[in-house]
Structure formats: C-alpha cells, structure tokens
Design brief:
mainly alpha; 0% strand; 71% helix
C-alpha cells in the first residue's frame, strides 16, 4: 500500500505554502536578530524540502511503471498540459491587471515561453522537462546495479552540492559540464531508489537495489535526525551567511540543490515510507492528495487575496500569524479546488 506516498504529498503541499507565507518574513526583513525573523527563518527552512519531495515522489511513482515510451508521453502530456496552460493564462491575466506585466498580448505569449509567468509556476517547466527524460531513464533504472546508482548520485552531488559550495563560498567554478547530473534529475532518480530500498532482512523489491544495513526502527530514527539536522543547518547557516554578508540576506542555504535541503528531503521521504502507513487514509487525506496539484496552482492567488483584505503574515507577531496564515491558505485553497473539481472540466485543470 502507498498510503505513505499520499500523506507525504500532503505534507509537501503544506511545506510549499509555508515557504511562500514565511519567505517575505525571513528574506525581506533586515532585523535578522529579532524573534520574528527567526520564526520566519524556521518556517522557511522547514519548508525547503517540499520541492525535492514532490520530485522524488514523481520519480518513485513514474519510474516504477512499465509503459511504452509514447504511451507514457501521451498520458503525462494530457495530465499536465491542460492545467499548465490554463493556470499560466490565469496568472498572465492576473499579472496584467494587478501589475500591468505583461502589458500586451505579445508580452504574454513571450512570457509563456520564457516562463515562469508567476514566481511559483517555475515548477511546471521543471516537471515537464523531467518527464521528457523518463523514456530514457526507465530502462536504465530497471537494470542498474547498486554500484551504478551510487555512481550516478555521486556525480549528481558533484554537479550540485559540491559545485554550489565551491561557487558560493569559495568563488571557484568547476569547468566541467554536468549536463545529465544537474538540477532536479538526481532527486527524481533518488525517489525511485529510496522508494524501492528495503530494510535489513527484507526481500529486495528491485534486484539491483540492495537493502539498507539497518532495521526499520533504526531507519526511522536516522531519518528523523536527518530531518532535524537538515532544517537546523538551513536555519543556522542562513543566519551565519547573512551576518557574514553584512546583514544582506544570503539565500544559499535555501537553495533546493544544497546538502542541507537534500538531507531533510531524504529524511522526510524515508521517515514517511516507514512511518506513514499505520492507519487507513481518511477521506479528507485522499481528497487533499488528489487536490495537491490544484492547490499548488491556486494558493498564491489565495495568499494575495488575504493580503488585499488586510490579513497577512506580518499583521501580528510571526509566531502566531505564520502558522495561522498557512492553515487559512491551505483550507481556502483546498476548498476552492474542491469547488472547481465539482464542475465538468474541473478535474482536468487541477
């Protein structure tokens, strides 16, 4: 049963909203020693695993399928093309009336191609690009050995984690080109690998992927500490880097392709796989998982509406206002998506 996958998707949805609610508090506040800033920094740091988790879940679910290439592309294109186009147009129209950008129809068409139209819609372009790699990755993951997986992840770490440390910390750029091992492709394959990796003593699910050398209890414990360490490194590292940057916010540790964010994402993925299967899914959990795509699209509009009516994360102290705002945005976005999905074409665009 994949109860854990639905619950992890719901968690990732919540964490995305947390980033967008807490982000302005952490990233646009000059007083980094204030309690309010630390609250915003904590929530933003906690939410950073969300995008890698979505990518990892996609890798686990899609790379496990045995589907002919063009059948896969046809099905996934139908699943994402219509909602992507619909919401890109919605946000283009919204931005035109709210900010006069795009100013003309030509600018709007150009914006659709350039992306991302609105700040959170970059994920659409990412996931479409990843889908194009699936027909190539499918045969490889099914026959790859443990050693080949570790090689792949090692080069991905060199092209992302290590590259970013050298560039941002030491101002050194690696001259090699890591075309196959950059961006989120490592997380995509990692989701399949971790999702099929069993505990010590269990029968392997995929012949080429060796079991963990840990029991289930040990693995849950290590996963929990990975989450804790990843979030703490992100929060503390952001504070220290900003201090060293003369108080100008330094976003390095918030990057989705850093060691600390990857550590938290791996921790959440493994912890969910081993801990989120304890009871059957509630109806609301099933509905929320099914609506997650639509919630991702619409929650920014809901956030903007809340700010327009005068309630926002900075209206009160962030200790209370951030979690309350996250909850309100999630509930209203979920409700809006359910209403949309009740219409004839609603499920096709969410």
């Amino acid at each position: 049963m994949l109860l854990w996958a639905d619950r992890l998707r719901n968690l990732a949805t919540l964490l995305v909203i947390a980033i967008h609610v807490a982000g302005p508090v952490a990233e646009e506040t000059a007083q980094i020693d204030s309690s309010g800033w630390w609250v915003g920094n904590f929530w933003d740091s906690l939410g950073r695993a969300s995008v890698p988790l979505f990518v990892m879940l996609s890798g686990f679910l899609l790379l496990g399928k045995d589907v002919p290439t063009f059948d896969f592309l046809k099905k996934r294109t139908a699943r994402i093309a219509l909602p992507a186009l619909f919401w890109l147009v919605v946000y283009s129209v919204y931005n035109h009336f709210a900010h006069n950008n795009p100013a003309t129809l030509g600018d709007a068409v150009k914006g659709l191609i350039n992306g991302p139209v609105h700040y959170h819609l970059w994920f659409l372009y990412l996931i479409i690009g990843i889908y194009l790699t699936v027909p190539i990755l499918l045969p490889w993951v099914k026959q790859a050995t443990e050693r080949e997986y570790l090689y792949f992840f090692g080069v991905c770490m060199l092209g992302t984690w290590i590259y970013k440390v050298l560039f941002f910390v030491f101002d050194v750029s690696i001259g090699l080109y890591f075309e196959l091992f950059t961006n989120q492709i490592g997380h995509f394959v990692l989701g399949y690998y971790l999702g099929n990796k069993v505990c010590k003593g269990e029968t392997p699910m995929v012949p080429g992927i060796k079991p963990w050398p840990f029991t289930g209890v040990q693995l849950r414990r290590y996963a929990f500490f990975a989450i804790l360490a990843g979030v703490l490194i992100t929060a503390a590292g952001t504070y220290i880097a900003t201090k060293w940057n003369n108080g100008v916010f330094h976003k390095y540790h918030y990057d989705y392709l850093t060691f600390n964010v990857g550590l938290a994402a791996i921790g959440w993925f493994v912890f969910a796989q081993r801990s989120f299967n304890g009871r059957p899914l509630l109806d609301v959990e099933k509905e929320l998982a099914g609506a997650s795509f639509g919630i991702y699209f619409i929650h920014v509009l809901v956030m903007d509406w809340w700010s327009e009516v005068g309630y926002w994360h900075s209206k009160y102290h962030p200790l209370g206002s951030i979690p309350v705002t996250i909850a309100l945005v999630l509930i209203m976005s979920f409700t809006a998506v359910l209403i949309i999905r009740s219409t004839a074409w609603g499920r096709k665009i969410t």
